[in-house]
């Protein structure tokens, strides 16, 4: 597979590619790359500070402390494999939206010196999937768990799932590139936007995303007929020196193994209000960079 880049002008009024009239089928990735200005669509946006590094994965390795590669956690404070949904609801959060006590985690960026690079922040964009009727989107059920991206990847993943940019700039590549002068180096992970309507987590733990899927041509597949918000998670890192770019890695393996986990522990009434008032009405709420 060949590494590719996607360029989009930051002043574009429609940063997405055109849709298709073909019937929806089950797909492994979104049918377009979202780039350019992030505030042009109905959505709600939350910014979350870094909480901590921990070699835990409550979704893939529940109850098994230290069984995972190193992750960086955002949102609900002190999440581990022992955490419960109720504890997260009652606990603190690093997010600027205090009703967002969900947990977000990704593999750690490893610098040229072999040490973890502390992230600057995470920005969570919630919106309808491409061409999905926003009025059909339903909130995630309480406690829903999802994983996007492939931690075993050794070749480039689709840019529509995992990509790198210079903060909110429109250029997307499969590897970090020179962001000299930009505020940050950013990793993007785009989650599935269709749900089977039954399971809050995958019925098979080693396959954590069987209960969710990506839409195609503005429709969810028959196997996963319920539209849910499409979460696009952006992680900002300090801009690395150009000479270090080829030596960057992720704790899950090489730099191509980007992925992210999401555990919904939003205060459910607030989540429902955000979906109705922002996504259904096609209004951008709390738009950040």
From TrEMBL:
InterPro entries hit by this protein: DUF1996 (IPR018535)
Listed Pfam families: DUF1996
Domain DUF1996: 57-266
Protein name (database record): Uncharacterized protein DUF1996
Native source organism of the sequence: Ilumatobacter fluminis
């Amino acid at each position: 597979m060949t590494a590719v880049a996607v360029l989009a002008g930051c002043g574009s009024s429609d940063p997405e590619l055109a849709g298709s009239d073909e019937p929806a089928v089950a797909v492994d990735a979104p049918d377009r790359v979202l780039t350019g200005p992030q505030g042009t669509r109905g959505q709600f946006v939350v910014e979350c500070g870094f909480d901590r590094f921990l070699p835990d994965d409550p979704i893939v390795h529940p109850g098994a402390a230290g069984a995972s590669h190193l992750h960086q956690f955002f949102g609900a404070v002190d999440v581990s494999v022992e955490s419960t949904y109720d504890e997260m609801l009652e606990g603190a959060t690093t997010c600027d939206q205090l009703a967002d006590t969900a947990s977000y985690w990704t593999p750690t960026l490893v610098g040229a010196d072999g040490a973890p690079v502390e992230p600057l922040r995470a920005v969570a964009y919630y919106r309808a999937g491409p061409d999905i009727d926003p009025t059909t989107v339903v909130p995630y059920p309480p406690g829903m768990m999802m994983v996007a991206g492939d931690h075993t990847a050794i070749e480039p993943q689709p840019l529509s799932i995992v990509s790198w940019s210079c903060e909110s700039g429109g250029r997307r590549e499969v590897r970090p590139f020179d962001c000299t002068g930009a505020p940050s180096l950013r990793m993007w992970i785009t989650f599935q936007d269709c749900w089977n309507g039954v399971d809050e987590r995958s019925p098979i733990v080693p396959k954590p995303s069987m209960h969710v899927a990506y839409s195609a041509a503005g429709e969810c597949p028959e196997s996963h007929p319920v539209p849910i918000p499409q979460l696009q998670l952006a992680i900002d890192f300090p801009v690395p020196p150009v000479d270090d770019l080829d030596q960057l890695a992720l704790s899950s393996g090489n730099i191509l193994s980007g992925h992210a986990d999401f555990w919904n522990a939003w205060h459910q009434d607030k989540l429902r209000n955000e979906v109705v008032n922002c996504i259904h009405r096609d209004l951008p709420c709390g738009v950040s960079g």
